[in-house]
Amino acid sequence: MEGPDHARGPGSRRVNDPGLLTAWSRLLLGSLKEAGVSQLVLSPGSRSTPFVAAAVHEGLIIHDVIDERAAAFFALGQARITGRPSLLLCTSGTAGAHYFPALLEAEAAHLPLLVLTADRPFGLIGCGAPQTLDQSHLFGHHVRGHFELGGPDPSPTAFLGLRRVAVQAVALSQGPTPGPVHLNARADKPLEPVEPGPGLAAEVAAIRARPLTRYQAGVVAPDPKAVAELSQLLRKATRPLLALGPQPIGAAQDRPELLRLLEGGGLVTYAESTSQHRARQVGHLLNIVHSVERLDLDPDLVVELGAPPTSTAYAKMLARSRPQRVVVKQHGHSDPQQDATLLIAANPGQVLGQLERPRLSSTFFDRWAEAEVEAAQALSAELKEGAPSELGMVEALLARAPAEAVWVLGNSLAVRHLDLLPGRKSPLLALSQRGVSGIDGLVAGTAGAASLDPRPYLLLLGDVSLLHDLTSLGLLHRPAPTVVVVLNNNGGHIFDQLPIARTSAWPQLAPHFITPHGRSFGPAAQLFGLRYHRVEAPAAFEAALDEAFGGSGPSLIEGVVPEDGAQVLARRLAQRRPQKE
Question: How many domains does one find in the chain?
Answer without folding.
Answer: 3
